[in-house]
């Protein structure tokens, strides 16, 4: 495509569109239709396939190929350059050219043309533009099918006698900003005051010309009927341009939407005292009052119902104004082109987005009024009646959704953005069907009976091919699929909990059986330990054990004093067995109570000695106690006498009794140990098992109350298990009771 046309005011023969066209031996003028497409006369380029083109203030001289050439009286051609002929800032300002169909036979004054005639050529100054004004006489040149122009106030003469208008061929002819035709010839015998032009009607009636123009310009020619009888109207200023025709103003509004809204409707004043912008617009609209050629009734409705209604938003007023000005033109909303495709995108995508153009259009559609206004445009006439149908189906949907107990997220969607899907199904856009097919292919609705609210919604939604039926089987099928997945997961979790609860119940049964077996074993052990024979055996064992140690202590007196004072050793040796007797008196009741559990190593002399280095200090302390007592007793007996020595030994008897009665609970072996470690270990294990059994019975009582309480107890147990130190940790009674 040669370039992009931009909406804006209608154009006249602006100097930055005027071009010089040159081939070998020929030179003429041209007019830029787009940044790359040029209109000129066919005889300027003759039969050459291309020419050199230079635009005033453009990017220089470029080669342009001939893409269309008229035949016979249609002396016109289209040239296409491979690159823009004007600078980017100029190309951005180019507005679309509007063509005119001249109606009537009355003369039309004020026609204009710009070109490079020979009269403006000077060897010193070079070539310059000539801007001429002329009057068109429709009744002349009918046989030749040409427009005849009388040049106003200009009659140049060349010294050579040649026509001063040579080089003007190819210039565009304009009237009231509309392109009328192409200057093609300067006939003789008219004293250089007459030109002829190819009629624009001739070009527009040529199908090949229209096709080539549309292909390279990107749009079809825009045509306006023009008559010499057309009344002059006071123009309206907007965005720096004056507008006399409705389509001219419509083009500017499309390109400058925000400017039009701000000038006309953002600040409207009061009905009695409107702002200057609104007052000028209303006065301009009042000029279109010809009931034969203009939509007077539509203009009255536009003003009374829309433009002066304070309840209508400013943007909607701009749209209604645009609808009246140019209903056959492009539909635009807030400066953005609107098509059926863009509306479908807004309905399907805009309802899902929090922001963006699609979301904005969707919100405007839901606000109301937009759909009916867009339906006025010819290209969107398929929207007529859709707003009413949309409102009806939305009300029906609300009744259907209100009769079903929907879950929270589905209820929010049903009351809000589900509305967009309903409108999408009503729009005459094939993409809606494609979206529905894609949705059906990507969704797997739950089977009947899985999700109750979805089954009821399908039942009340009616025909699956209706808008409500399609909404239910797309948007709400997705919600139902999620619900079905959650229900399936919940069922799986419940099954897992039931299986774990059954496993724990089985474990509890096994644990109870183990507890019962342990109780039986413990009862048998206690019976065997506490028989009279076992108690007599314990008494005999403690007598032999401590009696042996009493005999062993006697040599200590002779080892200390026997070498020097045998008499002292003999006296002391009588007191030492009483120490063993004191321990015996203290230990005998305990040994009898232990019964079979009391087992000193009478038959294992090796166990009498220290078992390891850790027990040696304790043994040495006991030996030191005996030898120290003997030494102190000998000194007392020698220096003080028998009485004090006896008192000393009595104190020792009491100390040994107390010591033997309390037993020895340390890690170091002692001559006075209880020798019942196995029984103590059994007793501790039995107490632990009893505590565990009590905790298990408490848990069993909790779990046997009700299904709800069993579930709560199970959840607390799982939470407690999850916080335990590790899988191998055996919970004590406190842990089990908490669980």
What percent of the residues sit in helical stretches (DSSP H or I)?
Answer: 40-55%
Share of residues in strands: 5-15%
What structural class is derived from the secondary structure elements?
alpha+beta
The largest sheet, given as strand count, sense and whether it forms a barrel, is: 6 strands, antiparallel, barrel
Number of H/I helices: 27
Low-confidence runs? 1-11, 664-672, 702-711, 713-739
Radius of gyration: 58 Å
Distance, first to last CA: 80 Å
Overall average residue pLDDT? 79
Query: How would you sum up the global shape?
Result: elongated
Going across the major beta sheet, what is the strand order?
A: 1-2-3-6-5-4
Number-wise, the strands total 20
């Amino acid at each position: 495509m040669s370039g992009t046309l931009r909406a804006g005011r209608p154009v006249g023969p602006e100097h930055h569109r005027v071009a010089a066209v040159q081939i070998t031996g020929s030179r003429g003028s041209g007019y830029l239709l787009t940044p790359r497409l040029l209109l000129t006369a066919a005889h300027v380029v003759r039969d050459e396939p291309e020419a050199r083109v230079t635009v005033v203030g453009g990017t220089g001289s470029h080669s342009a190929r001939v893409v269309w050439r008229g035949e016979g009286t249609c002396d016109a051609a289209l040239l296409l350059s491979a690159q823009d002929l004007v600078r980017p800032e100029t190309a951005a300002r180019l507005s679309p050219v509007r063509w005119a169909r001249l109606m009537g036979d009355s003369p039309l004054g004020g026609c204009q043309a710009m070109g490079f005639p020979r009269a403006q050529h000077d060897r010193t100054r070079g070539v310059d533009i000539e801007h001429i004004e002329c009057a068109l006489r429709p009744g002349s040149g009918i046989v030749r099918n040409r427009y005849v122009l009388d040049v106003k106030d200009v009659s140049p003469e060349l010294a050579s006698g040649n026509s001063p208008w040579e080089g003007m061929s190819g210039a565009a002819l304009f009237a009231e900003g509309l392109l009328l035709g192409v200057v093609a010839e300067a006939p003789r015998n008219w004293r250089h005051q007459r030109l002829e032009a190819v009629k624009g009607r001739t070009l527009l009636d040529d199908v090949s010309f229209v096709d080539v123009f549309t292909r390279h310009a990107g749009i079809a020619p825009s045509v306006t009927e023009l008559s010499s009888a057309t009344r002059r109207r006071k123009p309206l200023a907007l965005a720096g341009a004056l507008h006399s025709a409705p389509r001219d103003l419509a083009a500017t509004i499309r390109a400058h939407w925000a400017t039009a809204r701000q000038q006309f409707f953002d600040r409207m004043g009061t009905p009695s005292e409107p702002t200057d912008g609104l007052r000028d617009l209303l006065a301009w609209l009042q000029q279109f009052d010809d009931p034969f050629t203009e939509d007077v009734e539509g203009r009255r409705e536009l003003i009374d119902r829309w433009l002066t209604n304070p309840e209508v938003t400013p943007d909607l007023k701009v749209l209604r104004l645009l609808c009246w000005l140019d209903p056959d033109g492009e539909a635009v909303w807030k400066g953005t082109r609107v098509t059926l495709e863009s509306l479908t995108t807004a309905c399907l995508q805009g309802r899902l987005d929090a922001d963006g153009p699609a979301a904005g259009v969707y919100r405007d559609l839901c606000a109301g009024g937009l759909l009916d206004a867009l339906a006025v445009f010819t290209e969107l006439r398929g929207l007529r009646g859709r707003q009413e149908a949309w409102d009806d189906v939305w009300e029906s949907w609300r009744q259907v959704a209100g009769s079903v107990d929907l879950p929270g997220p589905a209820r929010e969607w049903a009351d809000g953005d589900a509305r967009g899907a309903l409108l999408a199904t009503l729009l005459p856009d094939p993409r809606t069907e494609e979206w529905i097919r894609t949705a059906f292919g990507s969704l797997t609705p739950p089977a009947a009976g899985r999700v109750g609210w979805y089954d009821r919604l399908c039942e009340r939604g009616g025909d699956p091919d209706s808008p409500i039926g399609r909404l239910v089987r797309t948007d709400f099928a997705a919600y139902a699929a999620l619900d079905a997945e959650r229900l399936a997961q919940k069922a799986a979790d419940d099954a897992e909990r039931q299986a774990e609860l059954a496993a724990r119940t089985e474990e509890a049964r096994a644990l109870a059986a183990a507890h019962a077996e342990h109780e039986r074993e413990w009862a048998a052990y206690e019976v065997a330990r506490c028989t009279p024979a076992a108690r007599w055996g314990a008494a005999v064992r403690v007598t032999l054990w401590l009696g042996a140690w009493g005999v062993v202590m006697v040599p200590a007196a002779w080892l200390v004093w026997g070498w020097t004072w045998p008499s002292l050793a003999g006296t002391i040796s009588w007191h030492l067995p009483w120490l063993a007797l004191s321990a015996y008196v203290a230990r005998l009741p305990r040994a009898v109570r232990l019964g079979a559990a009391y087992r000193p190593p009478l038959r294992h002399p090796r166990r009498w000695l220290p078992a390891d280095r850790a027990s040696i200090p304790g043994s040495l302390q006991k030996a030191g106690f005996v030898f120290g007592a003997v030494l102190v007793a000998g000194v007392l007996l020698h220096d003080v006498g028998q009485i004090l020595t006896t008192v000393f030994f009595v104190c020792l008897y009491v100390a040994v009794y107390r010591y033997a009665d309390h037993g020895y609970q340390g890690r170091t072996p002692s001559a006075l140990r209880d020798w019942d470690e196995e029984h103590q270990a059994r007793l501790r294990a039995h107490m632990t098992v009893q505590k565990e059994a009590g905790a298990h019975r408490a848990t069993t009582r909790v779990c046997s109350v009700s299904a709800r309480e069993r579930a709560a107890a199970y959840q607390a147990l799982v939470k407690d298990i999850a916080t335990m130190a590790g899988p191998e940790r055996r919970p004590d009674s406190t842990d089990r009771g908490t669980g």
